[in-house]
C-alpha cells in the first residue's frame, strides 16, 4: 500500500527537527566545555601567580638573613669597653650590667616582642649593632641613606620576635603577606672579654594572593640557636701580627721596610697595621689583612677609630701599588719589571693568598701593659715582684704524679731566693719544702708561697714585675718537654724576657715544616694532633722577647735549629734574636705558635736567599688557637668585634635550610 505523500513530508520534518535538536545540544555542551576550560585556565593562572608571590615573600625573608650575615661580617666596635658594656646593658633593657659569673646568663630577652621599638630615633636596645655596622657597610649592601636611625630600624625589625614586622609586597596584580622577626633569647657572659646574644631563627609562613586565589608557602628553618658573639678577640690567633711593619723606629724613619720573600711561608692569619712589601713568591696559608697605615701615621691619624691617613695597598719589589692599581686584581696581585715580556707568564713578584687578602682592614692596636695578667696572677696565679734571674718550666714526676714544674729565682733582697713549685692536672700547687719534701702550697697575702693547707689553685698565669733574665726548660732543655700535656701557661713580664733554651710541648699539635715543592706549590706542615691541650704564651708588655743565641751577650743553651713551642708577644717592643747580625748562620727557629709584636724583630741576615748570620724562620701556626684554645689570660685586642656564630663555627651566610611546603588556598 502506498504511503501518502503528506505523511512522508511530516516524517522528514520531524527527523530534521530531531537532528537540529541534537546539534543544538552538542553546541551547547561544547560551549560549556570551552567556557569551563577558559575559566579553569584563568583560575590556574591566578593560582600560579599566587604561588609565585608566596615564594617571593619567602625569598625576601631569606634575603634579609643574607644581608644580616653580610653586615655582621664587617662589624667592629671602637676600643671602648665601657661603651660596649653600656650598650649590652641597654640591649637587656637595664641601666648597667649585673655582676655574674663566667658562663652565667646576664638577662633573658622577650622572644615575643624581641628588641623592637615603636619610638623614633635610635632604639637603645640595638645601639650596639648600630655602632658596630656603619653606613658604608649598609651602602655596600644596597641600603642607601643608612643614617643611625635607618640602621636602628633595620636591626629593630630584624630582631622583632615572634610578633615580627610586616614584609608585604605586591606586583602585577599579585602580592604576598608575611610577618617575620628573629627571636632573641638571652645575653650570656662567657668571660670578661666575651658575651653572647642567643637567638632563634623561626620558620616562615607566607601567603600569596592573585585575584581570588591564595597560596601559602611555609619554610622550616632547621637552624639551631645562633649567637651574636661580642668579644675582644685573643691575639693568640695570629701566625704573625705586627703593629709597625719595620724592624725598629729608626728603620721606619728611614723607610727600610721588611720584605716577605719566596722563603716566607706562613700557614695562619697574618696582619699588619701598616703595609706589606713583597719580593718573589711568598706563600700565606691563612687570611692576610693590612690596615694600610703609612709609615709614621700610626696614632692620631690612623688608629682603631679613624683611618684618615690610611692608604690601602702594598709594596711590590719596592714599588707601591694602591688597591686600584694592583694587577691583574687586588685578590691576586703580581708585579713585573718594566719591559720584561717573559714576566707575564711567571711574574717576578707573585704572593699567594689562597685564604684571601684584605688591604683595608681595621687597625688592631696592641695593649701596652700587663695589668690584666698581673691581676689574674695576684688573684689565682703566681705574682712575682721584681726581676727574675732564672725561670724554668719543665715536665717532671713528683710522688709518681705527672706534674708541671715552675722554678724561679729572685734577688729582690740582695740574696738569690729560689722557689720550687709544681702542679698536676688538678691544678693544685705544691712546694718543695726546706726539708726536701713536697707539700701543699698556700698563697701568702704578699703573693709568695709557703707549705700549708689548703693547697692553692693555679690559674696558669705567671706575672713578673720586671725582667726575666733566663726563661728555660731546666733539666729538660736539651730534649725534654717544657710544658706538660695538661698544662696551659702564660708568662707575662713588664720588662724583657730572654729565652735561653728550647721550649717544647710534651704533646705538640704539629710537626715538621712547610715545604716548597718543585712546582712552586707549598705543602703545609702536618697538624694532626689538634686535641692536644698543652699551650704556652710568653708576653713582654713593655720590653722585648729575646732569643739568646750562642756566643752572644749571656750564657744560653739555644743552639742550632732551636724548637720554640709558644705564642710570643711583645706589646711595645719586638720578638727578636739577640745579636742577630753577628756570628754565623745557626739554622732555623722552629716555632709552633705565633708572633705578635710592635716591631717586626730581626732574626738574622741573608745575602740573597743564603743565610749569613742568626736564624731563619720556620714558623708553623698553631691552629688550635682558632678553635678556642688559648694561653690563659693571654692579651686580647683592644677593639671589640661582633660576629655571627653557629655554635663554635662562624656563620657568614645564614639560610633557611629546611623543606618548603605549599598548601592549597582558595582558587
Automatic annotation (TrEMBL):
What's one Pfam family here?
A: DUF4900
The organism's place on the tree of life at top rank: Bacteria
Under the heading InterPro entries, the entry gives: DUF4900
**Which keywords does this Swiss-Prot/TrEMBL entry list?**
Membrane, Transmembrane, Transmembrane helix
Could you list the residue ranges that cross the membrane? 12-31
Q: What is this protein called?
A: DUF4900 domain-containing protein
- What's the source species for this entry? Deinococcus caeni
Amino acid at each position: 500500500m502506498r504511503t501518502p505523500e503528506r505523511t512522508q513530508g511530516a516524517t522528514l520534518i520531524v527527523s530534521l527537527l530531531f537532528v537540529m535538536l541534537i546539534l543544538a545540544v552538542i553546541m551547547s555542551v561544547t560551549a560549556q566545555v570551552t567556557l569551563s576550560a577558559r575559566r579553569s585556565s584563568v583560575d590556574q593562572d591566578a593560582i600560579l601567580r599566587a604561588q609565585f608571590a608566596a615564594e617571593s615573600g619567602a625569598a625576601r625573608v631569606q634575603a634579609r638573613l643574607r644581608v644580616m650575615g653580610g653586615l655582621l661580617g664587617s662589624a667592629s666596635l671602637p676600643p671602648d669597653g665601657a661603651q660596649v658594656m653600656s650598650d649590652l646593658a641597654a640591649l637587656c633593657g637595664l641601666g648597667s650590667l649585673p655582676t655574674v659569673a663566667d658562663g652565667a646568663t646576664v638577662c633573658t630577652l622577650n622572644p615575643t616582642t624581641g628588641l623592637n621599638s615603636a619610638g623614633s630615633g635610635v632604639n637603645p636596645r640595638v645601639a650596639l649593632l648600630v655602632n658596630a655596622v656603619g653606613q658604608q657597610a649598609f651602602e655596600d649592601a644596597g641600603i642607601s641613606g643608612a643614617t643611625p636611625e635607618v640602621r636602628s630600624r633595620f636591626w629593630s625589625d630584624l630582631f622583632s620576635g615572634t610578633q615580627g614586622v610586616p614584609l608585604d609586597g605586591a606586583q602585577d596584580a599579585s602580592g604576598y603577606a608575611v610577618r617575620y622577626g628573629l627571636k632573641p633569647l638571652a645575653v650570656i657572659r662567657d668571660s670578661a672579654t666575651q658575651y653572647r646574644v642567643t637567638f632563634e631563627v623561626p620558620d616562615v609562613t607566607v601567603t600569596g594572593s592573585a585575584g581570588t586565589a591564595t597560596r601559602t608557602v611555609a619554610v622550616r628553618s632547621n637552624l639551631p640557636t645562633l649567637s651574636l658573639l661580642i668579644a675582644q678577640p685573643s691575639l693568640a690567633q695570629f701566625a704573625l701580627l705586627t703593629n709597625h711593619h719595620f724592624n725598629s723606629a729608626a728603620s721606619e724613619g728611614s723607610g727600610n721596610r721588611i720584605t716577605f720573600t719566596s722563603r716566607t711561608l706562613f700557614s695562619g692569619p697574618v696582619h699588619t697595621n701598616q703595609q706589606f712589601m713583597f719580593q718573589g713568591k711568598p706563600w700565606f696559608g691563612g687570611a692576610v689583612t693590612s690596615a694600610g697605615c703609612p709609615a709614621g701615621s700610626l696614632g692620631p691619624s690612623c688608629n682603631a677609630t679613624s683611618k684618615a691617613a690610611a692608604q690601602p695597598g702594598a709594596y711590590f719589589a719596592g714599588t707601591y701599588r694602591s688597591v686600584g692599581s694592583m694587577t691583574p686584581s687586588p685578590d691576586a696581585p703580581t708585579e713585573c719589571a718594566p719591559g720584561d715580556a717573559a714576566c707575564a707568564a711567571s711574574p717576578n713578584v707573585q704572593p699567594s693568598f689562597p685564604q684571601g687578602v684584605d688591604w683595608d682592614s681595621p687597625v688592631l692596636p696592641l695593649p701596652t701593659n700587663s695589668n690584666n695578667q698581673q691581676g689574674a696572677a695576684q688573684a689565682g696565679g703566681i705574682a712575682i715582684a721584681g726581676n727574675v734571674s732564672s725561670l724554668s718550666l719543665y715536665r717532671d714526676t713528683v710522688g709518681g704524679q705527672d706534674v708541671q714544674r715552675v722554678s724561679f729565682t729572685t734577688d729582690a733582697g740582695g740574696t738569690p731566693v729560689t722557689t720550687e713549685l709544681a702542679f698536676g692536672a688538678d691544678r693544685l700547687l705544691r712546694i718543695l719544702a726546706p726539708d726536701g719534701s713536697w707539700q701543699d702550697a698556700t698563697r701568702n697575702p704578699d703573693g709568695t708561697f709557703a707549705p700549708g693547707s689548703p693547697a692553692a689553685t693555679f690559674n696558669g698565669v705567671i706575672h713578673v714585675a720586671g725582667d726575666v733574665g733566663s726563661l728555660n726548660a731546666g733539666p729538660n732543655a736539651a730534649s725534654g718537654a717544657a710544658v706538660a700535656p695538661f698544662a696551659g701557661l702564660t708568662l707575662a713580664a713588664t720588662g724583657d724576657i730572654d729565652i735561653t733554651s728550647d721550649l717544647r710541648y710534651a704533646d705538640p699539635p704539629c710537626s715538621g715544616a712547610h715545604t716548597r715543592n718543585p712546582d712552586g706549590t707549598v705543602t703545609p706542615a702536618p697538624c694532626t694532633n689538634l686535641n692536644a691541650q698543652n699551650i704556652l704564651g710568653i708576653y713582654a708588655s713593655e720590653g722585648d722577647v729575646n732569643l739568646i743565641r750562642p756566643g752572644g751577650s749571656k750564657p744560653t743553651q739555644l743552639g742550632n735549629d732551636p724548637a720554640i713551642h709558644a705564642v710570643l708577644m711583645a706589646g711595645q717592643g719586638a720578638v727578636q734574636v739577640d745579636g742577630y747580625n753577628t756570628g754565623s748562620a745557626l739554622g732555623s727557629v722552629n716555632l709552633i705558635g705565633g708572633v705578635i709584636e710592635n716591631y717586626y724583630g730581626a732574626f738574622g741576615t741573608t745575602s740573597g736567599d743564603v743565610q749569613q748570620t742568626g736564624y731563619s724562620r720556620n714558623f708553623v701556626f698553631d691552629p688550635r688557637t682558632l678553635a678556642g684554645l688559648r694561653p690563659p689570660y693571654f692579651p686580647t685586642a683592644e677593639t671589640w668585634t661582633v660576629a655571627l656564630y653557629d655554635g663554635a663555627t662562624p656563620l657568614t651566610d645564614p639560610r633557611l635550610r629546611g623543606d618548603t611546603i605549599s598548601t592549597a588556598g582558595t582558587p
